[in-house]
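Pasting as-is:
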Amino acid sequence: MHSIRPEGVVRGVHATGIAAAPDGSWIAADRLGLARWGALGLNDVERLPARAGRPLVDLAISVDGALVLSAPERYRLAADAWDELPPIGPLFEGLVDHPSGTYEIAHATWDAHGSVVAVCATFRPSRRQGAAGRGGAPAGRILVLDGETRAPRLLLADLAQDEPCGPMVIGPDYVAACAATLRVWDHTNGSSIVTRRWCATSILRAAPFRDRLLLATTADGDVLLADVRSWITRDAWPAHPGAARGLAPHPTRDELATGGDDGVVRRWSLGGNLLADVSLDGPIEALGYAADGARLAVAVGGPSPSLVRCRLDE
């Protein structure tokens, strides 16, 4: 019988992302930077060297296990140091007239190797000119940047004022911007593959499921599964009564986990069958499976934030 059994907790860490490291520990991103959890014991937390600016929600480990990909930055585990990368911006490429202000990253993600980063950036006007400083420039821009030089490789889209910016996903041959409207481009040349309405609300999390599916959770608590060959929604179901900020694909099985503002973590089959659930002490902010799929790390938010490690039984 499937189950989710909490077996360890660290209190006082308010994480927004979790990823499993090769040594069996987890890396958590919070408002202070990165922390390694569980490398020495069940409940130990080691704060990694600080980095200016808060890591974004997107967090992953590169396929070779060498890099923590905390978009748009990279942390090298063997060296215990951040890569020294050039700053990003101002992302004015292709604009005839440069606006008074800058484009700031709202969503970003690395590819699995840490070689390119996709960003969705929104315009922030200068204090001097305010909103008028944007002129005719786009309200947002979606680009693929070189991981080393940070120079734009592809300009995928310019966004109008009412077009939302959502989580970014880089697959083997595609780049996807996940919002109420799903936009997908070819990874190599930037040509548009599909633009279609996906849901009626905001996408909070998105993740690739191997080379088969694109997974997402919404502000209404729904799970969405899109087939990456046809980009048709293969399945969808209500997972939580409110926002679902936690989403993790299982590394080896046809299974995924979700976590909601209701404080519940749930395991699902790809067909939407509930396999197991557990209630914790606050809203769920992030989830991450161990590399072998035997455990699940959970970031709990609210007034008493914590990291919870759960054992998964079959």
